[in-house]
Amino acid sequence: MTDLAASQKVVAQEPAHGISLGEAVFVWMRVAILSFGGPAGQIAVMHRILVEEKNWISEGRFLHALNYCMLLPGPEAQQLATYIGWLLHRTVGGIIAGGLFILPGIFAIMGLSYIYAAYGSVGFVEALFFGLKAAVLAIVIQAVVRVGKRALRNPIMVTLAALAFVAIFFFGAPFPLIIAFAAFVGFVGARLGRPEFAALEHGSKNSAAIDSMLGEGMPDHVRPNTGRTLRVGSVWLAIWLVPVFAILVTLGPNDVFSQVAIFFSKMAMVTFGGAYAVLAYVAQQAAEYYHWVTPPEMLDGLGMAETTPGPLIMVVQFVGFMAAFREASGMSPMLAGTLGGLLATWVTFAPCFLWIFVGAPYIEALRGNKALAGILSAITAAVVGVILNLSIWFALHTLFRETFPVHEFGLSFDAPVPSSVDLPALALSVAAATAIFRFKIGMLVVLAASCITGLLLRLTGII
Fold this sequence. Notes:
By secondary structure, the chain is mostly helical. It has one domain (21-199, 222-459). It is built from 18 helices and 2 strands. The protein has helices at residues 2-13, 21-33, 38-53, 59-71, 76-119, 123-151, 155-170, 175-191, 209-215, 226-251, 256-270, 275-289, 295-307, 315-326, 333-365, 370-399, 423-437, 443-459; strands spanning 403-406, 413-416. Strands 1-2 form a two-stranded antiparallel ribbon. The radius of gyration is 23 Å and the shape is globular.
């Protein structure tokens, strides 16, 4: 009887979905290589491969996981990959899915950072990035439209998005405060039974692998467990923060590596809404407070992140690289830049695994909870307003050579100097937007064409 019970226990612990870890690795590599275009494009790639093609997860469970990841600080697409990998193959599956998602971007951004640091002032490199910025602006606007179509399905959601935009763009309201307000509105709306806050209804595939596995009973790793939560939290906190403390103790708080470690660790905790929400905060702090990069360089870094696979927030690696490259005390600038870029990446992404491995079991247990659905729906609407804020910020620094700060009547924002409009940038941005919206041309084709156009404009002396 003992042997039979043990045998039954082993069988129960085996994945019931029939997807091997080797097969999952191959698929996650494919997802990573195809993950261009920021969160909107990456989520679309995952949805197409995991929901429609492989039928690993139903659309309902996919969107439930996505809404939780949008609630978290950090890049929601990478966290969504980690979440689904964890559902399939426990912690190992989550690490593989989340790690592979960022690995191509790490190598690509590092290589581009070397080129930028060495040749950034060379004419053809400037022309290349001039074209990139125009295309990136069109892509960011496309993200506003895509996310808005899904999230702003009634007047209340539209109002939440508008309030979020006004608060963050015109008054500089902290993003956590905006999220808290949206969450409160969503909670109240759901408790009152308002249909505007109900979860989106989506057709799902009953035979999806994960849903079949979790249909009759939840595997042990999906069930909430306080003891395991504490153990997992302790391990990932150590993975994240031990290197930070070691750098602080060794180099002191004023060293550039210490500043990079502390800044991006704080960013990992307080910046919500994914990459588009994070970038406005990173750009302001890195350019205006630390002076690691200039606003045009920040846009160049974003162009790098847009043209490479992986999360858009990989731009932090470029920022960390340039910070250490310029303050390499007693070290080769390229070596310092490499270490600075890897450090920024480490402290940005290590917390992402912490949020998923600690919180996902409890989110799975709350599937179908009306209050949570209302909160997540309202937060998603507010994030649309934040993305709109970022698109306008990019537009100001792409289309105008000069801006001036406005600080009157409680307002706090940058306004453009009309006479400083960059006509070639404006024309190229309009052309890129027309290609994307009117002719439905693919993102990579638009990016490549914009880069070539930038080079041609430099050769003809227009820029």
